[in-house]
Write a structure and sequence with these properties.
The protein is α+β, with helices and mostly antiparallel strands and 268 residues long. Helix content is 38%, strand content 20%.
């Protein structure tokens, strides 16, 4: 199944084995995911046992080997599991993403490289494999968020239902998030997001809104959101161009996130 999420539809070759859907960026990435899941649910056989999301900026070469892994198959057979994913490595910087173990009052960043399966708080949606039953329990993706933190919020809702999310460190895929740039601070290797002002506004808005909405249930996550906002600002200041406009957009977004109602409809 292919979801063309471009505002102006692209020309796709006809293929009887592919269901082509046009979403025109309604609801952002969340809207595209929702359209795909709804269409699968409407098929005669219903939602499959597992659904793999693959964004256009990911390299899926590892996918077949990952799905064939006996440990992955075993996890996907468990009713308490929501999703499992290979680890992602950013194309621009060559750095693996930092995954997090989250408790109500504490959090811990895993090392960038680790072996085997680890339960984590969040995975990015691209290349993640979700159990169909978990998608049905959790419900639609949040189209109010549109792009940034859509996967974060979905993993939080899975966690609230007692469903776990896993990453397999022995499998890795290349993925692009913005135009990331490496920099060093206090001897540590870090990466700036590279997003333009408009995305920085959305990041600020969504991060602050999630911090407010989940603070009483997940205090450690709310603290993580504030750290992420600081991380965004530091990365802009040290490693990026158009610093003033990006910082101003981030601050506007934070203000919007403070003003948004804590409870909003998931669907637009």
């Amino acid at each position: 199944m292919v979801v063309d999420n471009n505002a102006e539809p692209l020309a796709w070759p006809a293929d009887p084995g592919v269901i082509l859907l046009r979403n025109a960026n309604r609801g952002g990435l969340a809207g595209a995911y929702n359209l795909a899941v709804q269409t699968l649910q409407a098929q005669p056989e219903g939602l499959p046992a597992a659904v793999v999301f693959v964004d256009q900026d990911s390299d899926p070469a590892v996918l077949l080997r990952f799905l064939a892994d006996a440990q992955v198959q075993s996890l996907l057979g468990r009713a308490d599991v929501a999703a499992v994913s290979p680890a992602y490595c950013d194309r621009a910087t060559g750095l693996r993403g930092r995954y997090i173990e989250l408790g109500r009052w504490r959090l811990r960043h895993l090392p960038r490289r680790f072996a085997g399966l680890r339960p984590v708080a969040f995975v990015i949606n691209s290349m993640s494999v979700w159990r169909g039953a978990a998608l049905q329990r959790i419900g639609p993706f949040n189209e109010v968020l549109a792009v940034d933190h859509v996967d974060t919020e979905y993993c939080l809702r899975a966690r609230a239902l007692g469903l776990s999310v896993w990453v397999h460190g022995d499998h890795e895929f290349a993925h692009s998030i913005g135009e990331r740039r490496r920099y060093r601070l206090l001897g540590r290797e870090l990466q700036a997001g590279g997003h333009g002002p408009q995305r920085r506004r959305l990041i600020g808005r969504n991060t602050m809104w999630l911090a407010r909405g989940w603070a009483w249930r997940e205090p450690a996550f709310a603290a993580l959101c504030l750290l992420r906002l600081a991380y965004e600002a530091v990365g802009i200041t040290i490693a990026e161009d158009r610093k003033a406009s990006k910082l101003a957009a981030l601050l506007r977004g934070i203000g919007q996130g403070l003003a948004m109602p804590v409870r909003v409809a998931v669907r637009r």
